[in-house]
Amino acid sequence: TFDRLAAGNAIPPPERIRPIGVLWRTATYLLTDLLERTYSAAGGGVTPFPKAAAAWPDGAPPLMDLYNFVRDRLRAVRQEIQQQWSGRTPSGDFLPLSPDAKLCAVRIFERCARFHILT
After folding, report:
1. CB atoms closer than 10 angstroms to residue 20
2. Which of 21, 57, 104, 114 is the most buried (most CB within 10 A)?
3. Which residues contact 97 (CB under 8 A, 6 or more apart)?
4. DSSP summary character for residue 81
5. Which of 33, 21, 18 is nearest to 76 (CA)?
């Protein structure tokens, strides 16, 4: 679930935060696989969500529903990156991200920014 960092919430334990590689795959799934599969398939290809297709008249979720879903999930991804970037742990230890992980995090932020600019 999403909790604001500035809301005075405790830092989650490290086992509850996804690694950068998983966050990259999550963002990729949301921004390419899910969106492309949904709207390219709705034009006459494979039904993107066969079990739920009956709930939507054209076989794809309404654009605003999908936008809200993707936006909320990307917010959670960005929050987890911010928690890792700070390097703070609940025990007070400092575990900074590696340079490669920081580069990956920046690329995720760039993709999220493009999504918000274009929508």
Report:
1. 22
2. 104
3. 20, 84, 85, 87, 105
4. H
5. 18
Q: What is the pLDDT of residue 25?
A: 95
Residues 26-45: tens digit of each pLDDT: 999 999 888 776 666 555 55
Q: Whole-angstrom Cα distance, residue 66 to residue 75? A: 14
CB 109 within 8 A of CB 78: yes
Please list, in sequence order, all residues whose beta carbon lies within 8 angstroms of the beta carbon of residue 115, skipping any fewer than 6 positions away. Answer: 31, 70, 71, 74
Provide φ and ψ at 94, rounded to 5°: -120, 115
Phi first, then psi: give them for residue 87, nearest 5 degrees.
80, 0
Q: Is the pTM of this model over 0.85?
A: no
Count H helices, E strands: the chain?
Answer: 4, 0
